[in-house]
Amino acid sequence: METQLDPMKDDLPLMANTSYMLVKHYVLDLDVDFKGKVIDGIIVLFFETGSQYKKTSSTGKEGCQSQFDETCKVRASEPCCLPATNVSACSSKPEYNDFAVCGKGEEDTSDKTSNHSNEEQASGISSSKDCCDIENHGNKDFLLVLDCCDLTVLKVEEVDVAAVSGIEKFTKSDKITDVSKELENLRNQIVHELVTLPADRWKEQLCYFTRCSQAPGCGELLFTTGTWSLEIRKPGIQTPADFPHAIRIWYKTKPEGGSVTWTTDQSGRPCVYTMGSPINNRALFPCQEPPIALSTWQASVRTAAGFVVLMSGENSAESVQLREGILSWYYYVTMPMPASTFTIAVGCWQEVKQHSFTAAIQTNSEFSLPSSQADFRWHEEICGHMEYPCRFQNPAARLQAVIPYRVFAPWCLMERCEEHLLQLIPQCLSAAYTTLGTHPFSRLDVLIVPSNFSSLGMASPHIIFLSQSVLPGGSHLCGTRLCHEIAHAWFGLAIGARDWTEEWISEGFATFLEDIFWARAQQLSHDEVKGQQELKALLRWRRLRDEVQNSEEELQVLRPKKERTGELSESGASVVKHGLKAEKIFMQVHYLKGYFLLRSLARTIGEDSYLASLRKFVHKFHGQLVLSQDFLCMLLEDIPEPKKSGLTVESIFQNWLDTSGIPQPLLEEGETWKECQLVRRVSAEVTKWIQTNQRIRKSGKKKRKRDEVVFQKLLPDQLVLLLESLLEEKTLCPRILQCLEKTYQLREQDAEVIH
């Protein structure tokens, strides 16, 4: 029975009972139907028994180390390939076409995330009573609960992995007997051995995931769908350990499903993509959404000819023609990540190619190595994450300043992409590498998404979505947004928040690092960097001040669960606090307060020491989920000087993370940015415009000899500050507005200035 939620609370339920069963790998086999606006097909899920059943675990303990649940250290399945199926949804024996094997992109071995931030609360849902009675009170059947919304589920069955040829190598006994109970145990044993293969056997693991996903069914499972969940049971099975660990689900999405958007691109051609919905991917495929459910995936997607499928995947997929007019695209990942980071975009995208001369220049460019080679001593240590093919352990990957990248866009925007975006990507990737070291992901696709995209950018494993709004008006907005999304590869993807209420860990770090990356990409002098960063700080302070004045206090707290942050219910189910609240989608408080906290710490510690600590944090925690105290404790232990001045984890919680409003330390600093030279120049220009406005208003309609006023050329961020300051005036006459337009050519500026 599904727990009923009060819709007035705007909370999003995470129903999956991850403490009992934890998904380790997804195999998706999908068809995209643009006429019907549906995606339909099959998903096969491979599970491990969860921690709550294996042993009692303690959670929610406050301390310097994340109480990183052993269950969370799930074995990462490796790069994978998917079956190309062509099967009626009701068919009990799917016919699988030959599947193109697993060699493509096999050297690409890393992945993780986004970034999609929500707020989670461990109260509110407890499925142990009605859904998951693993204690067998009253001999109830065990219920597997998956997150699911707006999906038509057609059939669920157990997969007979024991029927796969050569699978004996994953069993402890040489002979497979026909005894029913033994066979059930054997299937689960095979899945366990498969999902726990060592990282150096990822190719073999990939191929066996594929073959197991194609295995015949061995019995339908009972299921019911609710508003937010899919509940599955097998009559007579009362514990997670005995429940089938490989299941196949036939399903279809619905046109109104919130996980994907069906629209047209800027050239008027149909497309569909995941646009970062508050409900994440539960309306795209049945899954386990809690962050702790780190998993790998492989997907085969079929479309009509002319369409291109882009996806979170380590390989740069090329289409394979299955039959006339039908193409198949295949992607995989080997780094375990939350299902919320899975991203897909299907459209008539065109690849924006570099001219050979430009490409040669970029290929031969000398990129800076990270600030200190000593920082890379941590690479020699064993990684702290679950086992997967990790780029931080790969000597070639550690020296790769610019990972392979591609740019896609609708046909009508290709020229604009070539003008700025294509040249900026290697500069920004190199700047990120110089700052943080090894790129967590092996490649990058950048897609200009349709005009209905509601933000400027979104990062997912191996792919970044950018709004068309970043393209006009020079390179500034395009470069800063690109740097922000690239930063999410480390903070939000490679290192994720264990509790979605702490989205500042993703957005605060990305906002702070955006400035560092962009300054290095432009190769600015020390004084230029300082000036630009103080100007940016003032603009962000003004935004934060306005947001705090015009939003609910409870939405302004970065750690709303305080000491309960990271706690889960017994079953693993939880509630994303305010996850469906409409206002929250447009709020920037997690970006801004998080940024100011990190900026304050950098100023206290010194930027060089601070960035060295960030690199150390990345090396220690990549591939893992963290809480705020993991970072703060490591920072203060690594650089003890601030402790002497009274800076502690507790004081940071109290002043920055656990309270609403503008933090007191920030109120004290707010006036200092006005002394920055770039800001003072804007103030002088504002005074000129106000005086000119007053003169024009006083003169009325009388013709008057115009005094020549010389206005200075301003940077885009200076223009934003100028226009914001002028908007605070009671009245500006039409002639002033015309003069502003003409003086600064406002229609030629970037989207932030135009806005």
From TrEMBL:
Listed GO MF terms: metalloaminopeptidase activity; zinc ion binding
Positions with biased composition (Basic and acidic residues): 106-119
GO cellular component, one term: nucleolus
Protein name: AMPO Aminopeptidase
Any matching Pfam family: Peptidase_M1
Stretches assigned to the Peptidase M1 membrane alanine aminopeptidase domain: 439-656
Gene3D superfamilies the UniProt entry points to: 3.30.2010.30, Neutral Protease Domain 2, Peptidase M1, leukotriene A4 hydrolase/aminopeptidase C-terminal domain, tricorn interacting facor f3 domain
Organism from which the protein derives: Ardeotis kori
Region (Disordered): 106-128
InterPro entries attached to this UniProt entry: Aminopeptidase_N-like_N_sf, AOPep, ARM-type_fold, M1_LTA-4_hydro/amino_C_sf, Peptidase_M1_dom, Peptidase_M4/M1_CTD_sf
SUPFAM superfamilies with a match to the protein in the record: ARM repeat, Leukotriene A4 hydrolase N-terminal domain, Metalloproteases ('zincins'), catalytic domain
Keywords: Aminopeptidase, Hydrolase, Protease
